[in-house]
Amino acid sequence: MAPVTHTSYNPADPADVLTEFTAPGPRAAADAVARARAAQPQWRGAGAGARSAVLASIAEAIADAAAELAALAVREVGKPVTEARAEVARTVATWRYYAQAPYEPTGTVHEPAAGPGLLLTRRRPHGVAGLVTPWNFPFAIPSWKAAPALAAGNTVVLKPAPEATVCALRLAEIVGSELPEGVFTVVPGGAAEGAAVLDAADAVSFTGSTAVGARVVAAATARGVPVQAETGGLNAAIVLPDADIGRAAAHIAAAIAGYAGQKCTATSRVIAVGAALEPLREALAEALRALPAGDPADPATVCGPVISAHARERAAEAAEGLSVLAAGPVPEGPGWYAAPTLVEKAEPGHRLLTEEVFGPVAVLLPAADLAEAVRITDSVPHGLVTSVHTAALDAVLHGLDGLRAGMVRVNAPTTGVDFHLPFGGTGASGHGPREQGRAALEFYTAERTYTLLPHNTA
Question: How many angstroms separate the CA atoms of 311 and 296, rounded?
Fold first, then answer.
């Protein structure tokens, strides 16, 4: 097989090449898993105190490098600097949170149904966790996968997206400096290296496209290893007539334009219920026009560049042929910028209603009532997150019972989730146990049941 070369560009200035490297190949990835497997018994046996102390040290090391890491995310993946700083802060908080996890109970004690003895349950690590991560959260996503895996006593092999290679390698330098050799390894490369990691690991966690995620789930299931896959969203924001329209528009605009819509939790469908349609149309268009695409290094920028020229073309094509309500200017120059765009009058089957565009484009849709809004929301294969804007608690408690979304956010944008709560969706948005919070600790461990009977009984 011919060597494969990967290049990481600055999306705001593609002439700025961060790295160009030859992929190490599947054998190198398999070797990394083998080294991680050899290191795992010692790491597991180090004890709760040692693992907790190391994860706490990692958190502080990342905090010490926060400014550097934020600047690197701006340069390599085009993340607006204010959001990049927030991502690094969330990354630090994630490692601090899981630094306490080794002290959590790992099982329960039960009485036998009859006779003397004890029944115990105990959660034990799987071994090597194989992680494949995207480029859009180059520090947070690897961390919210790796930290709970390590806390539970697993070792980790991470295959990051090629577009975020430099970020991943820098994270590995920081994390690896606090850990024994082989406990945390980054394997750069593309699909071949990712497949090799996942083919050899004892547990698999993937974040990426729906199509690739389906193949990952099938392969892991065939091997009989635990697998979780987070595979995007086609998220809706529902606005009822009693909502604070201005506040709802601000939230939704930020969820459309933030990081150029390159989040699985971005809003791509806006559903206005009844009389909310006309005021929301005007308010949301105005709010989007106030968030033009701009230099990600500028703290005022909300919508930076998209990750590639292809991504820019995909966003532009998604709005073709539709009635455009708002589309702001983009900076002149070489960067890959796409304007935050709101469209309407999309016919059933249009790509904005069937697939994740992963760009700053959203469609406005009318609904006669809340029941129709729920039907529209649930009409797509994805079910990650839905936001609902209303003053009526009854609508939230009873009117939304039919929603299939894994997360529902009331009077809040679809974007932005808490790292200590379960994260994940239904349908085409995800497979397997949830990520983050205590749910992650359960995924990275297997529960065993022990029966202990006396050696001698009368």
Answer: 17
